[in-house]
Amino acid sequence: MEGRTSSISSKIQTPKYGELITILSVDGGGIRGIIPGVILAHLESQLRELDKDENGNKKEDARLADYFDVIAGTSTGGLITAMLTAPVGENGRPYPAENIVRFYKENGPKIFPQTSGCLSWIVDLWQALKGSKYDGKNLHKAIQDKLKDTRLQDTVTNVVIPTFDIKKLQPTIFSSYQIESNPVLDAKLSDICIGTSAAPTYFPAYYFIKEDEHGNTREFNLIDGGIAANNPTLVAISEVMKQITKKNSDFLSVDDLQFYYERFLVISIGTGSKKTEEKYDAKMASKWGVISWLYWKKSTPLIDCYQESSYDMVDYHISVIFNAYNCQDKYLRIQDDTLSKEVSSIDLATSENMQKLETVGKDLLDKPVSRINLDTGRNGPVGRTYKEKLEGFAKLLIEERKLRESNAKGKKELDDDKDARLADYFDVIAGTSTGGLLTALLTAPDENGRPISAAEDIVPFYFKNGPDIFPQTSSCGCLSWIVGLWKALTGSKYDGKSLHKVIEDKLNDTRLHQTVTNVVIPTFDIKRLHPAIFSSYKLRSNPVFDAKLSDICIGTSAAPTYFPAYYFTNQDREFNLIDGGIAANNPTLVAISEVMKQITKENPDFTSIEPLNYRRLLVISIGTGFKKNEVKYTADMASKWGVISWLYWKKTTPIIDCYQEASGDMVDYHISVVFQALRSEKNYLRIDPLGSRDITGSSHCRYNNMYP
């Protein structure tokens, strides 16, 4: 299939369907936009090369906007952002990234016309004193011709472009996320880009009026977005975090900052810097007046200082946060701090200098990744080259897009399908004793590969079969307890035949490996005096556990004194099983442990999850209720019991009740403590007749008085 191509058919699905939140950010820097243009073209070429459809065909029309949730840009970066996201290219697609360098080479000399001759510095100074260095007409025309009448809402992915309103003396952030609540921001991309590019002393401030569909108008008096955020990466992250706080349905609703910072995948691209040149020093600057601060040897020291500090402080803040959450490998800052003299100019648009800028971009790809040292504030190499790092990021972006497409497709099919089942939504379903039978009913496939029972079938199942499984004694009055006691003394209360038949008829010959999702069912082997956990995850390493679901369910239901122990063999191993409640009447912790074991073993199903990362777990644990509030037993009462009373007292089994309730409560307690310690308590729900467990320490928490 080599040589054939495929196409991208739709926008990237929202982050709730995936594992990451992907952000691309481009700094301001005038004609130096050529440098990120080279980097972006390389990244897009990697995506085209590596992203293939199910037939192995390359996605030749892939665009960066197909892989990023947000693309942000300031000044020249804002123009690049618009070119990467506006649907004004061929077939309504954005321009390919390879067009960016071409755009600057074609339009740069017109946007930044150069003065020549020995008196050029006097001409430039005079121009700077009486007005902007450039009138901006060619800039406006180039942008308007490129972007046409496209508005912010039309972009193919979310866009964030900072500007600064000189009349309001505050930043104005044009963000796709803000359009719904503030439709007056839905301006033409050309107006936004001209505004964010209106660098003081270089281009005149830009004025326009926007009227929304309700007749509300707003005037904008804009200058360069670099005044507010020359490196817009932090603005982009903040825009996303605002949406998360507002419960935007595009994002999973989790009140945990670490959860989200661990999901960010951020590429931030600079336009180069002249730090190593050390062009200015204190002795020099101490002699400057207003003119020298604004114009000195064809540079603008004051603006340079503000912009460089913006680059670095944003990089510093983000690096600190990502380091704190141990996810620094998901943040890539690409910047060359070694520009010198003419190459560092933001407006030297000669053919020679533009070629040098393109070379800088190409050379940068082969340099080792540089990362800020949080102690010294200086950047230093950390190993792999930018080219290698970008290839790794490209693979992550492709995997993320495919994951979202798969999950979104699956969810749509389920949402549109009245045959949706609980097993379609859970990675693991666990159950003990009667819960084990429920688990099997919810996961065992029918002839169409769907679970044999919907959840709504469970209650009718018990109503229909309960009287046969638990036949009641017909003796009346005082004789009924004697009959019950006699059965308890001579054998199990019920012979289990009806239970066995019901389970076998329902589950047939289905085996553990056939369930439609992973299953965990605890039992207890009375011969080995050891729990036997039947888990889907064990089958590859221990296939002897791939027993019939009917055998497993009969075994886990064999409650002492109620049903006889259950014996069967599978692949030459014998099982002597009794009620799984002996080991784990509440199987929630067993299920979590089975998952954690797989993560530790680096099961590829869990590649993006760290061991003991409970923040990634969403757990619902359902009890079957008990009579705690009844206070049926007391110490005074129990102090008089012998063996018989502990095993049979007024038609109950006190010793079994105590063990099972202790098991259920201690599991709930341990899980609650862990989830609370990790501030993920909203990810764990325990349901029983007493209500959901409150682990916050409030007065109605059932565990407040567990320990003195």
Automatic annotation (TrEMBL):
Tell me the protein's name: Patatin
Domain notes, please?
The nitrogen atoms of the two glycine residues in the GGXR motif define the oxyanion hole, and stabilize the oxyanion that forms during the nucleophilic attack by the catalytic serine during substrate cleavage.
Q: Where is the active site?
A: 75 (nucleophile), 224 (proton acceptor), 433 (nucleophile), 579 (proton acceptor)
Q: Which family does it belong to?
A: Belongs to the patatin family.
Sequence motif GXSXG, location on chain = 73-77, 431-435
Q: Which UniProt keywords apply?
A: Hydrolase, Lipid degradation, Lipid metabolism, Plant defense
Q: Where is the PNPLA domain?
A: 24-237, 396-592
Annotated Gene Ontology MF terms? monoacylglycerol lipase activity; phospholipase activity
Source domain of life is: Eukaryota
Top-rank EC class of the record's enzyme: hydrolase
- Record-listed E.C. numbers: 3.1.1.-
Q: Does the keyword Lipid metabolism apply?
A: yes
A Pfam cross-reference name: Patatin
According to its UniProt entry, this protein's organism is Acer saccharum
Q: Which SUPFAM superfamilies does the UniProt record give?
A: FabD/lysophospholipase-like
Summarizing the function annotation, the protein's role is:
Lipolytic acyl hydrolase (LAH).
